[in-house]
């Protein structure tokens, strides 16, 4: 039973990691990273590591995505930017 | 099952590095680095797991119960929090780069340098 | 290096890594069956020091010196970020106007705030007994404070968050760790040796110096994360570049998000 849970969590983590990398828009990536943090926390819980899971839950699904979103906001604020996507409301993911 | 966790860790590492190499946006690259980093946690905890073991906390468990390896968990635990602050440092560098050079595209940055 | 060349270099390297790593994986002992000599010894050592949470014992007792290194990385990363994100001479600060918050959001955030804070502090305090400790609890406490940003607005957060205090707190956490280490030297042992009485297993006052170091790390991580997020919020919300137009709000990230984007009208 535990084995099944671990396998499911592992596949979820692998999928979430792949999605986080392939989402080229940082805003979307931050959201997927948050989901990745959640799945990692789940996996760590199944691997009998509650300490690590707690840490991952707080950091991976809250702090890191928040900092990425704030950076995106700062970086895209400037008008007439050379950076692409600054003026497009939605992302430019592939 | 016997090697799947290790292979998943390897896959996360590779896909993270792929993202870093092909990234056109430094913020995205920092996110990819965070992904790459998480592969080490998966590998460490996978190595430390024991079938039928419980978490190495003896607050209400008998002291002779079978537990998973606490050492690798301690390693992963501190790195997660420290890694977040290092991510913050990298993002701060991105903000500075943007101020100085007006772009967050790594390719455009290397063109600036000449 | 053009992006095409770079991709090829990566593909060659990745293929090599994948082959070697897979070969190594199939040579590793099967998942979940390995004997763990270090793990067994760490459990014995932790129990002999009356620390119920073996992971806390490894971090703050057996490998306390290593954690000092980790803590210093955290400390210097926060300092580096503060330096990089300071307000430059040609930038000006603009007070964000208060924004309206949907009442359900406000109620929920205000309701959650005390519980989240309490959970964070509980997790720090019980680090040596139950899963948790200074690292995890510190992050929880620091992020819990920012629920106020969601519930009210940025200025409310600034009022309850005297940043200087947190900067001092961060330094004090790092200093407390080092001082505890030297206290052991003064007591006639090696640096960071566990010299305090161990107490009874699974009580709040167990673990000797592990308890003290855990609290020091909790203080440092809480303050460090608060300072970090404050700097990023400053940059994103308040500080403006010289040529920036003060006009229309430019909402980044139409992809929805966690609500933090929509806090203040620019």
Automatic annotation (TrEMBL), chain A:
Give the residues annotated as coiled coil. Answer: none
Localisation per UniProt entry = Cell membrane
Span of domain MrpA C-terminal/MbhD: 11-77
Show the Gene3D superfamilies listed in the entry.
NADH-ubiquinone/plastoquinone oxidoreductase chain 6, subunit NuoJ
- Domain of life (superkingdom): Bacteria
- List the membrane topology term(s): Multi-pass membrane protein
Pfam families membership = MbhD
The cellular component terms of Gene Ontology attached to this UniProt record, alphabetical and capped at eight, are: plasma membrane
Matching entries from InterPro entries are given as: MrpA_C/MbhD (IPR025383), Nuo/plastoQ_OxRdtase_6_NuoJ (IPR042106)
Transmembrane ranges, per UniProt, are 6-23, 30-47, 53-72
Record keywords, A-Z: Cell membrane, Membrane, Transmembrane, Transmembrane helix
**Protein's UniProt name:** MnhB-related membrane protein
The organism encoding this protein is Streptomyces iranensis
UniProtKB/TrEMBL annotation, chain B:
Q: How does it sit in the membrane?
A: Multi-pass membrane protein
Q: Which domain of life is it from?
A: Bacteria
Any one cellular-component term (Gene Ontology): plasma membrane
| TM regions (residue ranges) | 6-23, 30-51, 71-95
What are the UniProt keywords, alphabetically? Cell membrane, Membrane, Transmembrane, Transmembrane helix, Ubiquinone
Q: Does the keyword Metal-binding apply?
A: no
Location within or outside the cell? Cell membrane
Major subcellular site: membrane
PANTHER family reported in the protein's UniProt record: ANTIPORTER SUBUNIT MNHC2-RELATED
Q: Which family is this protein grouped under?
A: Belongs to the CPA3 antiporters (TC 2.A.63) subunit C family.
Q: What is the protein's name according to its record?
A: Multicomponent Na+:H+ antiporter subunit C
From which organism does this entry originate? Streptomyces iranensis
TrEMBL record, chain C:
Q: Name one Pfam family in it.
A: MnhB
Where the protein is mainly located, per its record? membrane
Q: Which compartment or compartments is the protein found in? A: Cell membrane
The answer, when asked if Transmembrane helix is one of the entry's keywords, is: yes
Keywords noted in UniProt: Cell membrane, Membrane, Transmembrane, Transmembrane helix
Membrane-topology descriptor:
Multi-pass membrane protein
InterPro entries found in the cross-reference section: CPA3_antiporter_subunitB, MnhB
Q: Which residues cross the membrane?
A: 72-88, 108-129, 135-154, 175-196, 208-230
List every stretch annotated Disordered. 240-266
The UniProt entry's GO CC annotations, sorted and at most eight, read: plasma membrane
**What are the residue boundaries of the Na+/H+ antiporter MnhB subunit-related protein domain, all occurrences included?**
106-226
Entry protein name: Multicomponent Na+:H+ antiporter subunit B
């Amino acid at each position: 039973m535990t084995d099944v849970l671990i396998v499911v969590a592992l596949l979820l983590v692998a999928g979430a990691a792949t999605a986080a990398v392939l989402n080229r828009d940082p805003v979307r990536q931050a959201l997927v990273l948050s989901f990745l943090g959640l799945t990692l926390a789940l996996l760590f819980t199944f691997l009998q590591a509650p300490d690590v899971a707690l840490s991952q839950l707080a950091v991976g699904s809250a702090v890191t995505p928040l900092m990425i979103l704030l950076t995106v906001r700062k970086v895209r604020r400037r008008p007439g930017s050379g950076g692409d996507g600054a003026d497009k409301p939605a992302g430019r993911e592939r | 099952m016997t090697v799947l966790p290790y292979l998943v860790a390897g896959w996360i590492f590779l896909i993270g590095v792929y993202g870093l190499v092909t990234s056109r946006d430094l913020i995205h690259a920092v996110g990819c680095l965070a992904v790459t980093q998480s592969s080490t946690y998966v590998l460490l905890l996978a190595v430390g797991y024991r079938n039928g073991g419980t978490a190495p906390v003896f607050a209400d468990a008998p002291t002779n119960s079978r537990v998973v390896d606490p050492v690798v968990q301690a390693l992963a635990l501190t790195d997660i929090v420290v890694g977040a602050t290092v991510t913050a440092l990298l993002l701060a560098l991105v903000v500075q780069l943007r101020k100085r050079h007006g772009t967050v595209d790594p390719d455009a940055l290397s063109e600036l340098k000449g | 290096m053009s992006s095409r060349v770079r991709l090829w270099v990566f593909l060659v390297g990745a293929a090599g890594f994948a082959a070697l790593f897979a070969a190594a994986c199939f040579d590793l002992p099967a998942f979940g069956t390995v004997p763990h000599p270090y793990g067994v010894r760490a459990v014995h050592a932790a129990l002999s020091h009356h620390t119920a949470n073996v992971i806390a014992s490894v971090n703050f007792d057996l490998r306390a010196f290593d954690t000092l290194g980790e803590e210093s990385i955290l400390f210097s990363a926060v300092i580096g970020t503060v330096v990089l994100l300071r307000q430059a001479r040609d930038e000006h600060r603009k007070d964000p106007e208060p924004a309206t918050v949907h009442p359900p959001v406000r109620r929920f955030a205000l309701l959650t705030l005390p519980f989240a804070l309490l959970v964070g502090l509980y997790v720090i305090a019980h680090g040596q007994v139950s899963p948790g400790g200074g690292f995890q609890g510190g992050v929880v406490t620091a992020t819990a404070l920012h629920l106020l940003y969601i519930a009210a607005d940025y200025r409310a957060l600034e009022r309850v968050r005297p940043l200087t205090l947190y900067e001092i707190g961060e330094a004090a956490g790092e200093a407390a760790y080092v001082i505890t280490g030297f206290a052991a030297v003064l007591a006639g042992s090696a640096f960071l040796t566990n010299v305090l009485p161990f107490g009874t297993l699974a009580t709040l006052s167990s673990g000797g110096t592990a308890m003290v170091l855990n609290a020091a790390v909790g203080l440092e991580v809480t303050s460090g994360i608060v300072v970090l997020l404050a700097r990023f919020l400053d940059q994103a919300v308040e500080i403006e570049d010289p040529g920036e137009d003060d006009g229309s709000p430019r909402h980044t990230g139409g992809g929805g998000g966690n609500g933090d984007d929509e806090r203040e009208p620019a």
